[in-house]
From TrEMBL:
Organism of origin: Ancylobacter radicis
SMART domains: FCD (SM00895), HTH_GNTR (SM00345)
One Pfam family, short name: FCD
InterPro entries attached to this UniProt entry: GntR_C, TF_FadR/GntR_C, Tscrpt_reg_HTH_GntR, WH-like_DNA-bd_sf, WH_DNA-bd_sf
Name used for this protein in its record: GntR family transcriptional regulator
Keyword DNA-binding (UniProt): yes
Residue span(s) of domain HTH gntR-type: 15-83
PROSITE patterns in alphabetical order: HTH_GNTR
Domain of life, source organism: Bacteria
Keyword Membrane: no
Keywords: DNA-binding, Transcription, Transcription regulation
Amino acid sequence: MNSPLGIGPLSQESAPLRRKLVATLRRLIETGALAAGQRLIEKDLTAELGVSRTVLREALRELEADGLLAAGPRGLSVAVLAQGEAENIYAVRAALEAMIARQFCQRADAAGQAALTGAHHNLARAYDSGGLGAILDAKLAFYRALCAGAGNPVALDLLERLNARISLLRARSLVDPGRAQASIREIDALVAALLAREDARAATLAERHVAAAARAALAASSSPLNDSETAQ
């Protein structure tokens, strides 16, 4: 039978596997296990991860679209983030987080405040543990609670995309003991302002927190960004 739309049957896609693969590769990049500039060899990845080349290519295309991978003459490699681009990303993030902080103060109900408080406690414990994976997961949960309380899922999507791009820089600064202690103090002050519904102060503290994070991340990447030792 001829199709009235002129197309054939859609192929079945192993979406859950692809999502898991994307998450795995993203975490490897975030933690520096796959370093900036490192070339990805498909046959090695399919063998190590136990997936088909088709599923792998789908996952790699998604990561390339997110800016984590870059195409070159020898294939895909982990993206190298230029300093100017990183500065722009942090500037956008600062403005976005300030807006979210204001919205949280204006919109969050008691359940939203409780969720943020719980996420804050979990983040503090993650920083105490010093494990990069735990910190990244707790950071994500914190921002999800913040955006949920602000009633702004669009902002969460933008934040996750921005943070994915600068994951090449964040890993090193997040596990630096000095920066970790300063970061959680900044977040403590921010959460206090959020719960007190001090919207102007919360917005200012959110901007300051991102500015401090930017300084730390860019200082940590003062050596060439494609140096495998930096894993950024």
